[in-house]
Design brief:
Helix 3 (63-73) runs antiparallel to helix 6. The chain has helices at residues 8-11, 33-38, 63-73, 78-81, 108-119, 123-141, 209-225, and strands spanning 52-54, 82-87, 90-93, 96-105, 147-155, 163-175, 178-191, 194-203. 32% of the residues lie in helices and 31% in strands. The chain contains 7 helices and 8 strands. Strands 1, 2, 3, 4, 5, 6, 7 and 8 form an 8-stranded antiparallel sheet that branches. By secondary structure, it is of the alpha+beta class. The chain is globular, with a radius of gyration of 16 Å. It has one domain: Protein Transport Mog1p, Chain A, CATH 3.40.1000.
Length: 226
């Protein structure tokens, strides 16, 4: 069973970079927040050969859970504080998927509050509660007859500049007698009002950490230069 370009798992972690992903084309300008956010995401030249790019598509199904998660963790309402939310292209190779997102919020105080929510003791509990209903709904919409057997969220650390939080979600699904385990890492970087999120998905095994660190390091450099 193919897990259809599975970024649904970490949509629940849109604390810094959730909701209101630009619904219209944004012309990048070097001084406006949408243009600066676009410069923070992964580009084709950042990845090794063999990865295929596709346009990221948003999903309104997660909006209710995103707001519930923000309220649960004490994060600010994204709709109230974001000045830019730009997704990069999704990159795929076999079962592996990579995504990135650049966000600006209104003030440093808004950014500080969002980061504190990611680091809070409630983040794991709140995210675990939100991931399951999102995943169930997405499977239903895709017409996949599968049961979510378990969802586990743990902390993850990446040794790069600007790192503020990381999470690993492991979801076990079963269908027609088969079991499928999906792994997804979400890594958050921040500097001032700017925030970057990267997601790394693999099936049956965790995403290769050497490539994950290499790409997060590139995102860190973009953030530091922005």
């Amino acid at each position: 069973m193919r897990f259809a370009r599975a970024s649904t798992l970490m949509l629940a972690f849109g604390l810094l970079a959730c909701s209101n992903a630009a619904k219209h084309a944004v012309v990048a300008q070097p001084t406006d927040d949408p243009g600066r956010a676009r410069a923070l995401v992964l580009a084709e030249g950042d990845l090794p050969d063999g990865w295929h790019a596709s346009v990221h598509s948003g999903d309104s199904v997660v909006e209710q859970e995103k707001r519930r998660l923000a309220a649960c963790t004490g994060a600010p309402d994204p709709a109230a504080v974001q000045t830019a939310d730009v997704f990069g292209r999704d990159f795929g190779q076999g079962a592996q998927i990579i995504g990135s997102e650049g966000v600006f919020v209104r003030t440093a105080a808004d950014a500080t509050k969002a980061i504190a929510a990611l680091k809070s003791i409630r983040a794991i509990r709140c995210a675990t509660a939100s991931v399951r209903p999102i995943l169930i709904e997405q499977l239903h919409k895709q017409g996949v007859q599968a049961t979510v057997r378990s969802v586990r969220v743990t902390r993850l650390t990446i040794p790069v500049r600007g790192f503020v939080a990381g999470f690993r979600v492991v979801a076990t699904l079963s269908a027609v007698g088969a079991t499928l385990t999906v792994f997804q890492d979400a890594v958050f970087l921040a500097k001032g009002r700017a925030q970057v999120r990267a997601t790394f998905i693999d099936v049956g095994i965790a995403f290769p950490m050497d490539l994950e660190i290499a790409l997060v390091t590139k995102l860190s450099a973009k953030l530091a230069a922005g």
